[in-house]
Amino acid sequence: MEHQAPRAFNREMYHGKPENVFYGTDDGHQDGSFGEFKTFEDHYHSVSAERRDDIHMISVVGGLYGLNLIPLWRPKHLTIFDINPMAVTYFQVVRRVFTASRDAAQFLDRLGAGDYPVEDDEEAFVQENICLKQRGELPRARGSTKRSYEESWKIALEHFDLTRQLLTDLPLEIRTEPMESESFSNWIRNQNNIWIYCSNITEFHYFDLEIADPSNVVLAQIIFPGNEQILDLAPLSGGPVKASFEIPLSAKRLET
Questions:
Q1: Does a structural domain hold residue 123?
Q2: Which parts of 171-232 are beta strand (E)?
Q3: pLDDT tens for residues 20-41?
Q4: How many domains does the chain have?
């Protein structure tokens, strides 16, 4: 019998719908304590320095919880993806304001005031929604909001200078596609040194990805309401591996 993700019936809700962008994350512990973050910290510090020194971070946009992993993982390359083009636009706006602000306070002030230029109608839509969120007036018809930005991006804001530097300097790739797509699967198969944050994607869809030789591949997810998981594929290295994106994450060596 084929297993389905718990909310598979609802997985199309993010496909190209501008109103389904999360202006603030709800990943992790619901009290905003970031209690789940210790799992990520402990794992990062447990691996060798050689692995930490060559990380290609891949993160879904979602509510941009992944911003908090940037100053922890300190990647050398960054790929951001989402199935929803408006979510990608949201990331691009946030990144631009983050990298152009002198500190966390100015960053949040500029977001709330809409004090930055936009390049097209999509960015103007995002800008207006951010302003509405910061005033507590964002209607559900325009987007979703739960936590404040101070709570959503606590780690990134506490390490503002480092996060800003990395967002400014890192080679950045943007992909507007789902993880289960053929294009994403083909792109990722022969890569290594990839640390992937997939938020709660597996609540909505189960799928597999193959990695040719995952000597430095890490998968991380947080399933609402705060059930976090790190799966390190390095012990399976030496040949191709199939990673199953389910709840929980799992992986196995493939016969060659």
A1: yes
A2: 172-175, 194-197, 207-211, 218-223, 227-232
A3: 999 999 888 877 778 899 999 9
A4: 1
